[in-house]
Design goal:
The complex is a heterodimer. By secondary structure, chain A is mainly beta. Chain A contains 1 helix and 17 strands. Chain A has one domain. The longest helix of chain A has 27 residues. Chain B is mainly beta. Classes of the chains: A mainly beta, B mainly beta.
């Protein structure tokens, strides 16, 4: 073998070394991440307070690993605000070479909000976020209400979904958002979704004055909130 | 002479780089062997590629049955149980391995299944290769199913099963034998179907069998070794 051919062999070998290292580092150094959280109930009202419960938070996931967390609660009662039972929260997430994702589910049964203003036999929040070469997405498939009833508004028989972000006024109380969906991410390399199946916003009017010439409106202020069935998932790659 | 010396350094480096790249690529090591014959009267020998499986979501049996995949190993579920119906939500994380005899076992895992009509929350916890509730190893198997490229995982194989804790108003005993099956039928692809194509099955000694049912929502992912 003469000097010239050896020279080319060495150049080829050096090129191969660089390509190999770059490929190896690219595979090892990708910063994928997943996140998830779920809780069945949250009450923050003048009537009483109960933090997110039972809450499941996805532990940190790295490499091509996976994790799961769950929490259970037998019953919850915040007098006058919310009662419920069979409370469950689950979240899981995984990082893989072909697909990365997280999924969370939260549920509550025998739901009674504000002394019967809103009732449901069961509420299930279910979200998934996933990312692969084809892009990133999230959805809330599997999120439903069972026998939902809102006093003075109506009811749904059986197990049914409700259109995302359905806003219903609750005169004298505030309003409720059913299947409240809060998306995040760019849909290409990241995606996330939080679903709150029942989110009651308590409001009151402060101020406001009426004179013979007319009334000046008061200021609407938020005085509390109640959430039943909250599930979140996020993915980024 | 100098060039020969450099080539002695470069070639091992190239080989090392190649090995590093291959090691970091993390290819799933699933067994591509054809399905076992369907005439077996006892469970087929477990196939056990090292693997990590994670997922969660919801099924609504008897709606959306994954009949083609359940038929792949109908004899595998030797005990006939009554059907369970209604909403089931679940989440899991299972890492497989092999014991000294080459049997497929779960090295670590957590499985939570909530039967909403039954008001039962089942939980399985496996650490260091043994079931936290009975102290025994939990055996598993992975096999290709009726979906092209799809694979199923069974945790708690017949004659050994696994022990699940029961909580909730509908609980009838603190612990019982159980079996868990999931199928990743869209491996490497995000599940956008409604329902499926991924599927889940839960069998409980005292409460019944959901049968293999497509997910109403959620995902099942086999994500490498």
């Amino acid at each position: 073998m003469n000097g010239n051919s050896m020279h080319w062999v060495n150049r080829l070998a050096a090129f191969g070394l660089v390509v190999g290292l770059v490929a190896g580092l690219a595979a090892a150094g990708s910063a994928q991440s997943v996140g998830g959280q779920a809780y069945a109930t949250y009450v923050n009202t003048p009537l009483g307070y109960s933090g997110q419960s039972p809450v499941a938070v996805l532990p940190a996931v790295s490499g091509t690993d996976g994790a799961m967390a769950d929490a259970e609660g037998s019953a919850l009662n915040v007098a006058g605000a919310l009662s419920s039972d069979f409370l469950n929260s689950i979240t899981s997430g995984e990082i893989g070479t072909a697909e990365t994702g997280a999924q969370s589910t939260a549920s509550a049964a025998s739901v009674n909000i504000l002394n019967g203003l809103i009732t449901a036999d069961e509420v299930v929040a279910n979200v998934v976020s996933s990312a692969s070469q084809g892009g990133a997405f999230s959805n809330a498939d599997g999120s439903t209400f069972t026998n939902l009833a809102i006093a003075g508004v109506g009811s749904l028989a059986g197990d049914q979904p409700v259109a995302p972000n359905t806003n219903i006024s609750l005169p004298g109380v505030g309003y409720v958002v059913l299947n409240e969906q809060i998306p995040s991410g760019d849909g290409v390399s990241s995606s996330g979704l939080t679903v709150n199946m029942i989110h009651v916003y308590l409001q009151s009017v402060i101020g406001g004055v009426c004179t013979p010439l007319g009334c000046l409106p008061g200021t609407v202020t938020k005085t509390g909130e109640i959430i039943v069935g909250s599930a979140s998932s996020t993915v980024a790659m | 002479m100098m060039r020969e010396h450099r080539s002695l350094i470069v070639w091992p480096s190239l080989i090392a780089a190649g090995l590093l790249a291959a090691a970091c690529t993390d290819q799933p090591k699933v067994n591509m062997a054809p399905n076992n014959p369907s005439y077996w009267l006892v469970p087929p020998p477990a196939q056990c590629p090292t693997g990590k499986w994670t997922g969660g979501g919801r099924i609504d049996p008897p709606s959306n049955p994954d009949t083609p995949d359940e038929a792949v190993h109908p004899e595998y579920f030797a005990v006939v149980l009554p059907s369970m119906t209604g909403k089931f939500t679940f989440g899991f994380n299972v890492f497989l391995g092999q014991d000294a005899d080459g049997n497929c076992i779960v090295n670590k895992g957590e499985i939570e299944v909530n039967g909403h009509a039954q008001k039962i929350a089942w939980h399985v916890s496996i650490h260091n290769g043994v079931d936290a509730y009975d102290g025994r190893p939990v055996h598993a198997t992975v096999f290709s199913d009726a979906h092209p490229g799809g694979f199923c995982l069974v945790v708690g194989i017949p004659d050994d099963y696994m022990t699940a804790r029961e909580n909730g108003k509908g609980s009838t005993e603190p612990f019982e034998l159980a079996q868990f099956e999931v199928c990743d039928n869209d491996r490497g692809q995000p599940q956008k179907g409604k329902p499926g194509p991924d599927a889940m099955r839960w069998r409980s000694e005292h409460h019944g069998d959901t049968h293999l049912v497509y997910l109403t929502g959620g995902n099942v992912v086999e994500h490498g070794s």
